[in-house]
Amino acid sequence: MIYTLINTDPISEGYFILITGLLIVFSALVILALFFNYGLPLMLYIYKIITKGKDKKISEIKAIDNSDFTGEVAAVIGASIHMYMGEQHDHESGILTIKQVKKTYSPWSSKIYGTQNRL
Amino acid sequence: MKKLIIIFSVLALLVFIRPVLGLNANTDTTDNSSVTTTQVDQVDTESNLDGALNGIAKFYDYTGFANATLGHIIMIIIGIIFIYLGIKFDYEPLLLIPIGMGVIIGNIPFVAGNQTGIYETGSVLNYLYFGVVKGIYPPLIFLGIGAMTDFSSLIANPKLMLLGGAAQIGVFATFLGSLYLGFNLPEAGAIGIIGGADGPTAIFLSSKLANGINVLADGTTVKNLIGPIAIAAYSYMALVPVIQPPLMRLFISKKERKIKMKPPRAVTQKEKMIFPVVALILTLFISPSALPLLGMLFFGNLLKESGRTERLAETARTKLIDIVTILLGVTVGASTQADIFITKDSMLIFGLGAISFVIATSGGLLFAKFMNLFLKGDNKINPLIGAAGVSAVPDSARVVHSEGLKSDKTNYLLMHAMAPNVSGVIGSAIAAGIILSFLG
Known about the structure:
- The complex is a heterodimer.
- Chain A has helices at about 1-5, 10-50, 70-85, 110-115.
- By secondary structure, chain A is mainly alpha-helical.
- Chain A starts with a helix and ends with a helix.
- The model of chain B is unreliable at about 25-35 (pLDDT under 50).
- The chains are: A mainly alpha, B mainly alpha.
- The interface of A and B includes residues 15, 39 and 59 of A.
């Protein structure tokens, strides 16, 4: 195809590509759209007939009724996860400093101090 | 005892294997050519101070300060602006930050010939750039996009696929515009694809058409436009939230903006699985040159929808696409080396890119209005979603959604806008394939 393009005017060539290109893009998408509008439902219908309606699902998790697991339990789990996610502490600095408490008098064993003052 | 035998036999094997491989030192014949070196004693006349100053002067010649030109400075500032836009305004930061950093990396001034720059054979950046020049990265990105994309809104409403086609008017109109501006056919084709609003597609096509290697029929070599095209495509994609809303307000009346579309039907898993396979076959039979892009896109989508290959899909849409995005962003950014990038052509490409985005958006909007003429009742579409036909996924869909919300706070268009958005990806890849098959 390139060989036919060599000696032509690039502008007219451009128009040619413009029109054919747009047509091809549109036709490709129209075909896709038509297929998914009409072709696919038909395909699925035929598939259903072939398998006689027995549509085996790939993996079906059967819900086993558990009488112990009530809505309240679910609510508690939900709430606790919510609280855990929402109220997580941000990281605190791991450095602990021990501050020296300068107190000359400690009332740890003073009976009279305990009756007069509230600790 | 057993170990001893094993060690002994390994040693014996090594001894016997040496002559076979020609490693024996006795048969070494490579030193036969005698090299004579003459040593000339130079009398050191210069003082030590002069030597040191000369050394410093020589060192200075190698620094960026000595080699910087105005172009380098301008490009570094552009790189910083990219990074700023990405961080401050959140315009596609995943693209703009790697590209911005790449622009700075590519524009550090250096002395040529030391295998430093991206265009010097043998440099590390040159090896990474290989993936761009040979079009390796874009299909890998498409694989990830496929594994991310949910086509269900498109399957539910296939007529929206046409909007993705309408936006490709931008591609072909720009193609024509660049022909008028004097670019030759392959270059014009590569520039046109900026209108597809799809970074990987633009890089793929420009690496095939405007790579600076191909020779035209009249004997001239095409220009290397990968850098400008990629930068233009990505920067306009990042600017979608700026470019599109004014056009929407211009073309779409207030009443039309309030149209509520009926919710898309539920799509079964089976349909989703059939989609990539059928779409692959149909689109590529029409436009086989788009194979690397669309093949990977639908492959990625099948990985996602099959339900059996979740691991592969997970890797494709997270780690793999991340790695490729990093490499692609940095190398595309670095390819904007000032002496190669700052040319009249680059400026023209930037101008054409802006026009192509405008045409693509308008094309989508007007076609959506046109479609509405044939649709009745609640089948009518909101013409705003036509703007999402340019494929900048998912940014343009998001812009449509927020524009819709401005007119009516209860009108959620995101789901609907995703349909033309993903079909825009398919459409621009098909358009790239067509241009490639005509001009490649």
